[in-house]
Amino acid sequence: MPQNPDWKQALEAGMQFTEMRRTQARRMAADLVAQGKLARDQMQGAVDEILELSKRRTEDLRDMVRTEVQRQLGVLGIATKEDLARIERKLNKVSKAAAKKKPASKKPAGKKVGTTAKKAG
């Protein structure tokens, strides 16, 4: 029987692959300088570029995971927070509309004060 993947472990591995610290980026840029593939005066720009690329990859991975989770929830028919909020808004609208359509309560007709007619006699 196939075992379910450990999503937390997979995400952590992906984050380690994509998310890079400044010290790691400096080390990578220093290696490029040592190999003669990057000029020393370009090192800071390269570090910033490496970090930006890492940040974009991290965001791409998060978006990909978020999209897949939402897709799986849809397949399973599980309501999301957005689904519940939309239903709640609809119910509130229906409740307000029903309250407006309620007829005003009528008071029973009674004697009016000060309108009694005097009998001539």
Describe what this molecule looks like in 3D.
By secondary structure, the protein is an all-alpha fold. The protein has one domain. The protein is 66% helix and 0% strand.
Q: Notable features of this structure?
A:
121 residues; mainly alpha; 66% helix; 4 helices
Task: Summarize it.
The protein is mostly helical and 121 residues long. It has helices at 7-18, 22-34, 43-76, 81-101.
Structure annotation, total helices: 4
| Shape designation | elongated
Largest sheet: none
Q: How many separate structural domains?
A: 1
Beta-strand fraction estimate: under 5%
Order of SSEs: HHHH
Average pLDDT over all residues: 79
Question: How does the SSE layout of this entry go?
Answer:
Elements: H1 7-18, H2 22-34, H3 43-76, H4 81-101
Helix pairs in contact: 1-3, 2-3
